[in-house]
Each structure stands twice: as structure tokens, then as C-alpha cells.
Amino acid sequence: MFSLLSGQIDRIDFHRVELTKTTISIYICKKWAFRSNEFSLPVPIPFKKEVFRITKHINACALDNREIEEITLDDPYTVPYKGIYAICDAANEYAEIVEHSNCYSGAAWSLYHYAKAPLVLKARSTGNMIRYLMKTGFSNLELKPSVAAAGIESVVVQGDEVEITYAGLGGGGVGATRCRAFADGVLRYNISESGGEKCARGTVTVPRRDRVLIGIDDTDSKEVGATWTLTHNIARELDCQEAVYLSHALVQLFPVPEKTQNCMSTVLEFGCVDENAKSRLVNAFEKALKKYSASAQTGMVVLSDFYAKGLYEYSNRCRTERILKAEALQCARENGVEVVLDGNGVIGALASLPWFARPEESIIPGTQIKPLAMEKIKTDI
Questions:
Q1: I need a surface site. Which of 74, 320, 333, 350 has the fewest CB within 10 A?
Q2: Residues 287, 292, 295, 301: is their CA dihedral positive or negative?
Q3: Topology at the third CATH level for domain 211-362
């Protein structure tokens, strides 16, 4: 046995890879790779730049004899989305279709064209997530090459499932069918042939989800910690098909004297398939916060709501003036917000909730969150 950094390994764990254009060997051990002229253990790694992480799918571009071997593509004309999620309001009148892109340029093309569809009220991107706020129901798409070449034709809620029908011309048809049909989380699909000059249609069935918002503040201390990093890491660990982690936003608050430094809270957005999934998510999040928080004043609140619009006024005030804890708790009761951890951080945690999926706006001091006027929102596209 030999030691590599702090762990114990066997010589057999190492694999040597010869590159075609280098005189230095690359050795791979589990998920780590490093360069060395000769192999000896323990392995000296004096600088970070001498180590680069290798994921479970090792990038063949750097590690094989690509110059003399032909590549093989199992499906050369399909780029599956990472996920497609349907978040619905309580009455199933509105839905937000959230698409997790695997190729942003293709998703950006869809964003431009899909925004013109009759059912789409607002279309935007948040990182590599494309979000379409929509009326549910059916529509007639008038597809035109280059101008309106693809769109969402219908969104139909059937119990605990949502059927989304896409249509597109040419490459837009490929995106409307195969690329979305093979996304993670799709329960069923029905697609036509696509590509070339064809007009293609595809229907994917995904779980109906409720929006679950978790607001958190005061997990750090003067010496250690950062709320935004801790909450993101917990959310990533809890991300699953039953409770999908959709967004993370930092919210600038009014700088009260009790602040650690920058006076920011965090809101996390999940899409949960049912109450059981929500309950398990909240319980696991609470347990993780109690384990890792560096503060005795941590606040954690939870709200299941499509808009969180009842908290707009409170949040706007909290970003421009000092709010007392008693007022925050009263506001939470009046708006059906569950207070999970009731430290002083509950003030900022509650203020963060309506800023879900608005990470560019929420960080600007004093910015007012505006009510969502559904009948006028189309003009904002």
C-alpha cells in the first residue's frame, strides 16, 4: 500500500495513458489524473496546476489517439435535454415549463422562436435553464422558416402528469422531438420523424410539479461560512427526480447592524411531484442546516406557491429598511409560510422567497420586485 495525499491506494489503482504528442506520461487514479516523467509512490503533487480532475466520463479528446482513430456517434443528430420540468399553479391554469439545456446555443434558438407561440406569456433564460411561463391549453402554431420555426403547441394537465406538445421545422423539428423526448424525467413520448425539410411534432409526458421555495439566512458567523455556498451544496445533494433543484438566488437585504458582512439571504426553488416529496425534502434540508450551520440564529422558511406574490411588499421593505422579527413571523403566518427554523435569520429568509429564479435582479440593492400582471406580461418579451 502507498499513500496519495491523505488516502491509501494500491499500485493497481493506477493506469498509464500515452499521448500521441507528448513525452510526459499521464497517470490516472480513480477520478484524478496527473503528469509525471516517471512513476513513483507516494506521488509528489507540489502545485495545483499539476493536477486536473477527471469526471466519470473521461474526455476522450485529451486521452486517446484521436488523430488516427475515427470517432463513433451513437446518435449524431440528437442532443438530449438534461431535463424538462412542468411547474403548475394550484388551478392548473398556468404552467412554467423549465428546460435544462445540454447545448445553450440550441436552447437560445428555441427561446427566440418559442417566445412567439400564442400560449407563451414570458420566455427567459436563467443560466442554462430556459423557462416558459404559459397558459395551459391548446393553440395553433403558424410555423414559418427562420421567422417562427418552432414552438410549444399545447400544455395539458392530466392529473399528476403534464403533456407538452412541441412542433418545429427542419432542425427545429429535431429539437421539438428527439432532443426533448430523451430528456431525463420524461415519462413517455410520442414523436414523428424529424430533420431535413420535415415539419415534426412531438408530445412528451412529464410529472406535474408544485413549486416549493426554501428561504434561508444566517448560517455563517464572523469567522466562518457563507449562506449561499452551504445552501447550494445541500440543494445539490438533495436534488432528485421527485424534488428537482431548479434555481438558487442571492438576495440583497438592508444592511442591519447584526449582519455578518454583506447582508444577503438565499432562496432555493424546487419542483416537487407531491406532498410526500416536499416533506422529505424539507426534513432533509432542516437536518443538514442543523448539522452544518455556523450560527445559532439560522432562519429557514418554506412556501409552496406558484408566485409568492403575497410577500412582494414585505420583501421590498426588507431590502430598504430594518424589519423586526415579530413582524416577519406575523407576515409568515398571514401568507401560509412554514417557519422551520426561527432564528433571527427568519427575517431575511422570508424576504428572499419571491426572488426565486431572479438571480440577476435580486442582488441589486433596493431593487423593487414587481407584481406579475399576466394579461400584460406578453408585451415584455
A1: 74
A2: negative
A3: Alpha-Beta Plaits (3.30.70)
The set of cell numbers assigned to 291 is 448539522
Question: DSSP strand E in 229-298: where?
Answer: 243-252, 264-272
Would you state the pLDDT for residue 75? 87
With contact defined as beta carbons under 8 Å apart, do 126 and 359 qualify?
yes
Q: Are 174 and 166 in contact (CB under 8 A)?
A: no
pLDDT at 237: 97
Q: How far apart are CA 127 and CA 235, in angstroms?
A: 17
β pairing state of 161-169 and 150-158: antiparallel
Angle at which helix 227-238 crosses helix 275-292, to 10 degrees, equals 140
pTM of the full structure: 0.79
- The 3-state DSSP class for residue 208 equals strand
Which pLDDT score, from 0 to 100, does residue 22 have? 45
- For the purposes of burial, counting CB atoms within 10 Å of the CB of 138, is it exposed (0-12), middle (13-18) or buried (19 or more)? exposed
- The model's pLDDT over 122-142, given as tens digits with 9 standing for 90+, comes to 999 998 999 999 999 999 888
Among 149, 152, 110, residue whose Cα is nearest residue 134 = 152
- Residue environment code for 330-368, b if the CB has 16+ CB neighbours within 10 A, otherwise e: ebbeebebebbbbbbbbbbbbbbbbbbbbbeebeeeebe
Count of H helices and E strands in the chain?
10, 19
